[in-house]
Amino acid sequence: MSETTSEVLENRRGGRRQPVLWKSVLTVGDYSFDCVMYNVSLQGARVKLDLPLKEGADAVLDIKNEWTVRAKVAWQEDGYMGLAFDADASDVKVMFGDIAARF
Question: What region holds the PilZ domain (predicted)?
Answer without folding.
Answer: 12-87
